[in-house]
Every structure is written in C-alpha cells, then in structure tokens.
Design a protein that fits this description.
Number of strands: 2
GO molecular function: DNA-3-methyladenine glycosylase activity; metal ion binding
CATH superfamily of the domain at 68-213: Hypothetical protein, domain 2
InterPro entries: Adenine_glyco (IPR005019), DNA-3mA_glycosylase (IPR052891), DNA_glycosylase (IPR011257)
Strand order of the largest sheet: 1-2
Largest sheet: 2 strands, antiparallel
CATH class of the domain at 68-213: Mainly Alpha
Keywords: Metal-binding, Zinc
Organism: Subtercola boreus
Protein name: 3-methyladenine DNA glycosylase
CATH topology of the domain at 68-213: Endonuclease III, domain 1
Distance between the termini: 17 Å
Structural class: mainly alpha
Length: about 240
Amino acid sequence: MTGGRDPGETAAAPVRSAEHAALAAPPAAERPAPSALVVGADGRARCAWAGSDPEYMRYHDEEWGTPLHSDQKVFEKISLEGFQAGLSWITILRRRPAFRSAFSRFDIDAVAAFTEADVERLVTDASIIRHRGKITAVISNARITQNLIAEQGDGALDRLLWASAPDVPAPRPHSVADFVATTPESAELSKTLRTLGFRFVGPTTMYALMQSAGVVDDHVEGCFRASSGQFGPTETASGA
C-alpha cells in the first residue's frame, strides 16, 4: 500500500472535488464499512489494496512488508516512492522495468554521474514518469547517497532507513480505520533525509517506504502474509 501526496509535492492528475464526491456517494451511515481484506481466486485472504490485479497480488505476496536491505535496493525504493507521489503505486510497479532501464538499474554511482543530457533524455522517455523535478531529484539523491557511503561506509543508506524502525511495533491493523499515512518515525526519517539534502522524501512517502521495505509490518490481521507472524530479521525481499 502506498501513501498519498506529500505537502509541496504536486499530484500529476486532477481529482474530483470533495463536493462532487460527496454528492455522488450515499450518506456515510448507509455505506458499508470497506473491508480490509479480499479473498482471491486462489482462496487466500490478502490486504484489500492488493485487489485482483496479478502484478499487484504478486507484489503483495512476495515483496511488500518483506525486509529490504542493501544501499542499492533502498535507493531504488526511495526513488520509486518519490516518483509515486501523487500517483497510484500500480502505475509505478508496471513501469518498474522501464525505470530500471532508464536509471541504470539504480546503480548509485552510475546515476550520480548522470548529466544534463541524461535529464533531457529522461524527460522525453514515455516509458517512465516524465516529471523533471522527480528525475533531477533521483540524480541529486544519488549524489548525496554516494557521499553518505563515502563518509560512513557501505550500508550507510540501509542503516539510516532501518534506524527509523519503531522501538515497539504498532499493533497489526485490523480494519481500514487502523491505517495511518504518517508516523512520528516517518516524520523523523523525512527530516533526517531532508537535512542531508534529499528531495521527494516527505513523511507520507517515507511511511510508504517503511511499509514496503518491511521496516514496519502493516499486513492486516487475517491476511495470509500476517498469519505466520513477523518476518525473520535476515529475510529480505527479492525486489524482482
């Protein structure tokens, strides 16, 4: 599941006005509470956001909430979460192979060496999200990450992310009402990264990162990914 738009980060598409949405919907008291779970054709109960899209279901089953490690993998996920701001995650997920091709598989040193010519190449690449601000942010963030690793050694970005893990895990969500968009930990992670100069790393985007990278486990109660408990500390996502 992904977070919404961060303050100061502009959505790529217009949305209906709140008044329009209210007029089109029945009164709250007459609407059934949305379920936090969905049962797929395979009989498995999943977090409802996974829906029935095969790629979304695969991502939910294999990646989301599984501990993610390595500077490169964390850098890629930060970059993709930044591109997601204002969009749906499935839009990014379907384009992930194109993003990897366009950004040298998110090799930190390679992206840090991108030039203005690369920026112009990317803003005309219809296979990715052609948002100049987000593109230049990825390049700038790569250079900051490169410096961070030079100063603190391999694993510096990985350690920075995992330092945001809450001391006491929050109760597992049981319903849609239990989901939050930000936490004190995601706000602190955002502040730390912004102090270093990172861009498109607002608290909402960072909480989405923490969820997807397994820093927090927000699989809802009853989801088959939650039924076996938390993942072990050495289990990592393939990021396939």
